[in-house]
Write the structure tokens for this entry.
Amino acid sequence: MTNHLFSEIRSRMPDLQKPFLETQDGTVFTYADVLDWSARYANALVDLGVEPGDRVAVQVEKTPDALLLYLATVRAGGVFLPLNTAYTPAEIDYFVTDAEPSVFVCDPSRADALAETAKKVGASLQTLDAQAKGTLRDLAEKAAKSFEDVPRLDDDLAAILYTSGTTGRSKGAMLSHENLASNARTLVDYWRFTSEDVLLHALPIFHTHGLFVATNCLLMAGGSMLFLPKFDLDAVLSLLPRATAMMGVPTFYTRLLGSDAFTRELVAHMRLFISGSAPLSAETHKEFSARTGHAILERYGMTETNMNTSNPYDGDRRPGTVGYPLPGVSVRIADPETGREVPQGDVGIIEVKGPNVFRGYWRMPEKTAEEFRADFYFITGDMGRIDNEGYISIVGRSKDLIISGGFNVYPAEVEALLDEIDGVAESAVIGVPHPDFGEGVVAVVAPKSGAKLDKDSIVSELADKLAKFKQPKKVHVLDALPRNTMGKIQKNVLRDEFKGDFA
């Protein structure tokens, strides 16, 4: 059966004159504009030689046109490949060489530096800037406003997203039309999105969170978006009175809590705050709830799987958990070595199966085979547990597991206690080489504004709360912890910085 992602989005569109998106300067794009401009860009891509299955690589600033280019690629039967705007030309060379796109779209300021890379793979190099000007926009303006969508099957690719590659070579996760459509369908229903919703969108759109979770969800609900180029505290505070929902990373919520202007009255009308892409500390969850009366809904997803679990819309949204498996998604906790399920409550590796799970890694069949069990469960690499009420908690990445003196230390357990200490804004627990224990537990903390942290006091605070082998053998205080563009703490950077602690 043909199941085209865009045809499903189109079937759910409201009155075409309804606003779909409003930019910070007040420019409005209606649903009619979505149809017209995605058709124009689709025609432009076909004129450039894009055929079904061809990749369209894109490294451009966040604009409405960048979203329309995503939809146009899908309509043309292409495979959308968004790339982080922070990537250097050397990094881009790897992705483009690996994916071999037929069209590569970049900011005009980067065109000269990337021309050789595009030429090497035979890609047509096009430009699009932050004001939606460039060679691709010029082609779209001349193109027809109608386009007959290229038929696609459930398993045909709609996108490739490259993983961050912090532990080695980046891998291209292949996402099908049905991967994206099924997840958006589920989230609209589970999170109760309707055409009445107005989503405050301050996330980047080169990542699954801002591109697929936020955008596809909103499109399938027929709602509207307030579209910011990035998270700006003043802009978010000014737009919240017009929004009903917001999706963010934990950093968004800690920054809001740091503002006196962020009050219960400001968000009394809001329906939903959702957090993802990085762990939300229990302390932030509690402080947010006390300040606003809203319990942030934390969920769990991955580049390879879209969303897997969510705290309930109705019911207890528990701090420190990512809720239950979403409808249609199966989650189990397994022994990393044997693959057998562990007893309830025990820690193991999280494995998932469902229509949301990707098709495998681009041109890496051996790696794909390694990451799936024989019964098609995907091995996420995240360590977690399921409690007796079915709530799932993530205790860290398997690569972040610390083995000290033969004992397993799960960083999330120690971090949760560190975050409760007065004056601690955030924490990260890492393992570094230790001559006696193999790995020594090291805590890295950042203070809240104006707070002074004492390393000895931090150690003594944990003395009665953790077994000796879990307690940090060293504590470092930094002004801020290193994070990537999605707000995830970069533990690999910290491990490298403090690897000589016990040398």
